[in-house]
Amino acid sequence: MSAVSRTAVAALAAILIGSAARAQGNPWFGEDALVLSRGMVRLGFSPTWTRFDQRYGVDGDVESLAADIAGDTLGVSRLAILAPLEDRLPDLTGLSAVRVTLGRARADHDASILTVPFSAEIGIGGRLSLGVVVPIVRTRSTVFLSPNPSLNEGNVGINPARESQTARDQNAALLAQFATAIQALQTLIEACADPGNADPRCPEARAPETQEFVTNAMTFIEGIDEVYSESGLFVPVAASPLDSAIRARVAGFADGFAAFDIGDITAAGPAGAAIAGLDDINRILTDSAFGIRAIPLVSRTTTSLGDIEVGTKLQLFNTVRRDSLQRYGAGVRAAVAAVFRVGTGTADDPDDFGDVPSGDGQHDVEARTYWDFLLGRRFAISLVGRYVWQLPDREVKRITGPHQLFAPYWRRHEVERDLGDVIDAEVTPRLALGGFFSAMAQYRVRRKAADRHTGTFNVTDDLGEPVTLDASILDQETEQREDRLSIGLGFSTVASAARGRSRIPLEIVMQYGESIRGSGGKTPKVSVGVMNVRVWVF
């Protein structure tokens, strides 16, 4: 338990402990098999704080929530838009193998969710009750991204010619000087075709190697024009090994032309890029020219409506006592419930790679079963089981494999989806600590089946190549498992008020839990604090 949680529990106990001596009866609290009697009303709200900055991998290993953002290299495997440059650079640099990267990215991602569900229940018969839960959800996604923290990891960056006239002038000067030198050398070669030409440069100009030199110079400068043009996206970082290799080739061609006393290659171009920083990464994400068209990776807080629940609960049997509110003695009671969850929450945004959704954006049907075993005046065990049918719907997704965070916009399509059904079970032993207080522990297991996405799309990628997208790739790493352990302290005057010994029938519960085991690839490792307040109206 964190220091904040221990302080909160201690403060609650200090405020309420003075009243404990005046009450009698067992103070059981929380979710159980009790069904409200006819006309009885229970109102509540349950502020719940959830935080996570880690997740469970496929094999259950714990990894950073920012694992898909951070990385040793932001290369072609993560940003496919870099591929054309990587394919072009071997010809420009003369290097046999080139791997381009915007650099290393250091990142942290912390997610927190404050959920405040307001609930109302009413008994409509001796064994049946109805209820509704309306949650308000406040999410905060804190993203810290530091590309190239050592300022030397990247070898390519955004082409400065896209916005700098100075860079365009440098490149234009280099192109013009190459064009003049190539034209002059071609003129010399044609002139030297005359056997009677006495120009001392003619013997060398007539050599096959000279025509090959001209051809290579033309190919090289055409590549420079293509890569460094105003429409080019990325170029080598200035003074990087790639940039140095290109400048070495410029110098080599300059020496070749100088041997014929033709032209001078003196231009400062080509203009190299600056090392990529945070503004550059967010520009790549947001500027439509780069093909991703997403939202910047920044921290943000949102408040929205969560998924509304409407349900009914039926008592199957109760051997505890006819007046179940007094809750003492031994016995067993059981109930079942049916819940319809409306997808009013905010679903995951396919254009926000760091968002924290407040819901799944689709409807669920949930069946629950409750079993209480009361073993005398001081001890009870509750078992709760849930099965959630997640109903099919349609959702806009970027169709790509898991952990491919920076997926291009052409992968964004509306797909058919059927989220995996969920089995959730918990066991909660409770111990009465006098007339008002109870302590509890809880072990909860949650298992979610794999999702199913369908849809096939014939599209064109950023390079104009035809691509077929299959939405089933989204099913990967969607099966989830989480085990959670919680402890709590509860205060209840319900049993006492039922016998007229307390004025206000009230429950207050402080609970803290943490994930202790999980798997699935995207299963968050959470810490959860709950304060549950419920007032009864007899």
Task: Describe it.
A hairpin with a 4-residue loop joins strand 16 (422-432) and strand 17. The chain has two domains: 3-68 and 113-142 and 305-537, monomeric porin ompg (Porin), CATH 2.40.160; 156-274, no CATH class. With 538 residues, it is α+β, with helices and mostly antiparallel strands. It is built from eight helices and 24 strands. The model is unreliable at 1-26 and 322-327 (pLDDT under 50).
CATH topology of the largest domain: Porin
According to CATH, the homologous superfamily of the largest domain is monomeric porin ompg
Low-pLDDT windows of residues: 1-26, 322-327
Large-scale geometry: rod-shaped
Q: What Rg, in angstroms, do the CA atoms define?
A: 34 Å
User: How far is the first residue's CA from the last residue's CA?
Assistant: 36 Å
Please provide the count of β strands: 24
Total helical elements: 8
CATH secondary-structure class of the largest domain:
Mainly Beta
Mind telling me which CATH architecture of the largest domain this is?
Answer: Beta Barrel
Beta fraction = 35-45%
Describe the main β-sheet briefly: 14 strands, antiparallel
